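Notes, p. 3: input format for complexes.
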Amino acid sequence: MNVLVVGGAGYIGSHCVRQLTAAGHHPVVVDNLVFGHRAAVAEDVAFYSVNLGNESEIGKILRKEKIELVMHFAAYAYVGESVTDPLKYYFNNLASTLHLLRCMLGSGVKKFVFSSTCATYGIPSQVPITEDFPQAPINPYGQTKLDVENALKSFATAYGLSFASLRYFNAAGAAEDGSIGEDHKPETHLIPLGIDAATGRGPALNVFGNDYPTPDGTCRRDYVHVDDLSRAHIAVFDQLAVPGAQHFYNLGTGTPTSVLEVIRAIEKVTGKKVPHTIAPRRAGDPPALYADSTKAQRELGWVIKFPDIESIVATAWKWHESHPHGFGK
Ligand code: UDP
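Output follows (329 residues plus uridine-5'-diphosphate):
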């Protein structure tokens, strides 16, 4: 299938492009390179540096490349920034996505795979989280993702758009061969910051709170390998054959891992200590977030290849060790 990957030079998008190629599909990348890296996409993949809200240019690409399905990864994803600068998030994550969707519908492209997030659930009343939990985001980032989900539901009913909204938990790890991986500027995620602390490239890690109601007092999250996530995007294609199909899937391993357990995994994999200090809680961090992803496993035949934190961290380490400056050098 000819697949337009919007945000295909970003962290999850670039891994998905490789998985598409490996599965025999034909990916075409659109990325404005604000956060993406040209080097994360193979030279022989068609690449357009265009904003997703640019309807005339996106329309030309859809027609020229005979696109049948669009995957949309391009979004701002700094939760704290979404609170201090919500306009940026509503314009990029919501308004630009509406331009993309209008352009697709106008060009007759009616299959869509959307990067959504567990942040749409806000603070769940219990865990693990299933897809039918109430969605009550606690920040503009999660709200904009939920707004797009709601728009998609209406578009499916009104225009016959078929879509899958994939609600990611904590994307982590890197390509198994270590050739591409996570390179955010600024970096805020636990695993890359922990690896930087271990190698001395970064400061000691701040552990945001150790007085949560969890077994070791630190927050528990559901770390899911970026290639496992990517494979779910492809496994969902069959679900989109029927016009107007609407699908929602949680993508996580279902195993909660605490901040201290992540630190121990990094120490085991790298053979180095992770210097860390206990810091105050970070605003908006729920004590525990993890998925019940049995729906994706049952309906998509989604198989989790990296079910444990050590195997995920091992791939991240392979990337960071071989690319100490990310895609920079
Ligand atoms: N975390 C931490 N120190 C850091 C970064 C993250 O203790 O420097 C914690 C954070 O509070 C959360 C977990 O690690 O409980 C995962 O955070 P991350 O930012 O990687 O992902 P999020 O869960 O916010 O999407």
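DSSP finds ten helices and 13 strands in the chain.
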